[in-house]
Structure to design on (344 residues):
């Protein structure tokens, strides 16, 4: 799949892109612009060459010859690089305006995932694992439901969100909660996502003040229409109580106990309109716009990253910090959330 723009390209544009890439070698100006877009992804030429070497599975000398323009990248190599590095071929081809930014909609099957879905899940885990020892990494997230970097450690909560995804995406043919299962391979990836996220240098969460209330209301609805039974409800409730205990412990210490990495938790005083998640590393600016509960629009564009982080920071200014300070407010907040969960 090409790294799509934030609007859906017409069939005409897709054909134009195909012709554009095929004939890029005949247009030195366009090809040089493509090489320039690659180089802009990082100032470290060695890391860039290593990344492309691994991506294309070719000799490093061959990569350097391509980057110098002595040998041209092939059609498939250009596609792979554009997709992996978040380069918009639309923009280079001139069919994308200055207001458009490159992004890709990842619609993975959360229930009965295919091998392609697993590749997506494993790709995200690989990114987190690869920056484990990298300094100055950062996660920023504004959330109106529980952050997946936290809740995926809890099996029955994870099953609940998969159940919600299934309900929304399969209207008229959705499965009840007891038929939602997590394959062992996927469960391992979920736990690894949480594990490696705790190695990020600093994490900031801005949570909707109604995040637990909304979750409990939704669960109660599905209990009433008998898609979640009482035994399953008890398991979800127990996970939620354990989740609250863990989150409060993180808030008290202002860090993950497992790794000692800094965590700032804010409770927004206004409603958050969506889930935004940003991951910053030395060579990458990843932005996720959550969609359909478990899917996301993904982009590596730095301008989108800066806009999303600015939005999250603005929400932060209208929020109350509960980690490492504000002991009275933090205690009151978690007591209230426990009472809400106890109504299940």
């Amino acid at each position: 799949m090409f790294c799509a723009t934030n609007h859906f390209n017409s069939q005409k544009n897709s054909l134009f892109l195909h012709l554009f890439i095929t004939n890029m070698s005949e247009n030195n100006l366009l090809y040089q612009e493509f090489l320039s877009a690659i180089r802009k992804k990082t100032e470290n030429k060695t890391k860039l060459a290593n990344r492309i070497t691994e991506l294309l599975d070719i000799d490093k000398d061959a990569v350097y010859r391509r980057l110098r323009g002595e040998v041209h990248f092939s059609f498939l190599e250009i596609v792979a690089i554009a997709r992996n590095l978040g380069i918009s071929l639309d923009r280079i081809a001139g069919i994308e305006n200055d207001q458009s930014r490159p992004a890709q909609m990842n619609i993975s099957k959360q229930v009965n995932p295919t091998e392609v879905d697993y590749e997506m899940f494993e790709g995200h885990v690989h990114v987190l694992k690869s920056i484990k020892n990298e300094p100055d990494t950062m996660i920023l997230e504004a959330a109106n439901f529980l952050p997946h970097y936290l809740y995926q450690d809890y099996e029955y909560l994870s099953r609940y969100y998969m159940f919600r995804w299934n309900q929304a995406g399969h209207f008229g043919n959705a499965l009840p909660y007891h038929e939602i299962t997590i394959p062992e391979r996927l469960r391992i990836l979920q736990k690894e996502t949480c594990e490696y996220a705790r190695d990020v240098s600093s994490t900031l969460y801005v949570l909707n003040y109604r995040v637990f209330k909304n979750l409990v209301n939704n669960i109660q609805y599905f209990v009433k229409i008998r898609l979640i039974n009482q035994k399953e409800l008890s398991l979800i409730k127990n996970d939620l109580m354990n989740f609250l205990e863990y989150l409060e412990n993180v808030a008290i210490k202002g860090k993950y106990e497992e790794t000692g990495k800094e965590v700032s938790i804010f409770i927004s005083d206004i409603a958050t309109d969506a889930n935004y998640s940003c991951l910053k590393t030395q060579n990458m600016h990843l932005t996720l716009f959550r969609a359909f509960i478990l899917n996301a629009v993904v982009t590596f564009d730095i301008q989108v990253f800066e806009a999303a982080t600015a939005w999250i920071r603005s929400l932060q200014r209208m929020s109350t910090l509960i980690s490492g300070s504000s002991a009275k407010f933090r205690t009151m907040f978690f007591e209230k959330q426990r009472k809400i969960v106890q109504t299940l």
Observations:
- The chain has two domains: 11-100, 105-342.
